């Protein structure tokens, strides 16, 4: 029985052209009735598609028509149904971010890759870090800090010299961005279900913004982060090219 495939594409012309070619060949199912969603673009669009379809049961299979394709498979127009049938599935829980801004307003968002705090002014940020209700660092002076999932550990976290995490490791990476004091502090590995809280010190003088997969909240005074087990994202990869293999390979390039 043929698969009901729904196609989604970024605004990039190359992605839109690919979508038109695939729809002409395989049709285009309604998202609500699709067996699988094929996302055409880069990793940013893949994250957007995952967030937008998290209420659906259909897994998402990405094909690279963008700049970065860590979460994507190679693009190809032939034998797509066979590739989908043979694909391996990875299950991901996102992080939930609860950020409170200087006006006292609370903002919630989910992040598949990471939640990051970044200085938003000329001076370095000052952050206090609490884990599971216990104060772990009374003052971190830095350009920022982030909490990354295993799936996001090769993204911003890796660029900030954080560790690459195996996909089944059930840990999170807490990584500093350009730490000034303690100067050599690179971060920590935490259990997946840890509750992390950042409090922004001297927030008026040293403004900080928070981001959850590129959703930005400005002038935050506190940010709380923890895994969200109630939300499960299903991602499909070609055999032998799943997230576990990619995470290992990334460390040898």
Automatic annotation (TrEMBL):
<feature type="binding site">
    <location>
        <position position="151"/>
    </location>
    <ligand>
        <name>NAD(+)</name>
    </ligand>
</feature>
<dbReference type="InterPro" id="IPR016064">
    <property type="entry name" value="NAD/diacylglycerol_kinase_sf"/>
</dbReference>
<dbReference type="Pfam" id="PF01513">
    <property type="entry name" value="NAD_kinase"/>
</dbReference>
<feature type="binding site">
    <location>
        <begin position="154"/>
        <end position="159"/>
    </location>
    <ligand>
        <name>NAD(+)</name>
    </ligand>
</feature>
<comment type="function">
    <text>Involved in the regulation of the intracellular balance of NAD and NADP, and is a key enzyme in the biosynthesis of NADP. Catalyzes specifically the phosphorylation on 2'-hydroxyl of the adenosine moiety of NAD to yield NADP.</text>
</comment>
<dbReference type="InterPro" id="IPR017437">
    <property type="entry name" value="ATP-NAD_kinase_PpnK-typ_C"/>
</dbReference>
<keyword id="KW-0520">NAD</keyword>
<keyword id="KW-0418">Kinase</keyword>
<feature type="binding site">
    <location>
        <position position="143"/>
    </location>
    <ligand>
        <name>NAD(+)</name>
    </ligand>
</feature>
<dbReference type="InterPro" id="IPR002504">
    <property type="entry name" value="NADK"/>
</dbReference>
<feature type="active site" description="Proton acceptor">
    <location>
        <position position="43"/>
    </location>
</feature>
<feature type="binding site">
    <location>
        <position position="178"/>
    </location>
    <ligand>
        <name>NAD(+)</name>
    </ligand>
</feature>
<comment type="similarity">
    <text>Belongs to the NAD kinase family.</text>
</comment>
<keyword id="KW-0067">ATP-binding</keyword>
<keyword id="KW-0547">Nucleotide-binding</keyword>
<keyword id="KW-0963">Cytoplasm</keyword>
<feature type="binding site">
    <location>
        <begin position="43"/>
        <end position="44"/>
    </location>
    <ligand>
        <name>NAD(+)</name>
    </ligand>
</feature>
<dbReference type="GO" id="GO:0003951">
    <property type="term" value="F:NAD+ kinase activity"/>
</dbReference>
<dbReference type="Pfam" id="PF20143">
    <property type="entry name" value="NAD_kinase_C"/>
</dbReference>
<protein>
    <recommendedName>
        <fullName>NAD kinase</fullName>
        <ecNumber>2.7.1.23</ecNumber>
    </recommendedName>
</protein>
<keyword id="KW-0521">NADP</keyword>
<keyword id="KW-0808">Transferase</keyword>
<feature type="binding site">
    <location>
        <begin position="113"/>
        <end position="114"/>
    </location>
    <ligand>
        <name>NAD(+)</name>
    </ligand>
</feature>
<dbReference type="InterPro" id="IPR017438">
    <property type="entry name" value="ATP-NAD_kinase_N"/>
</dbReference>
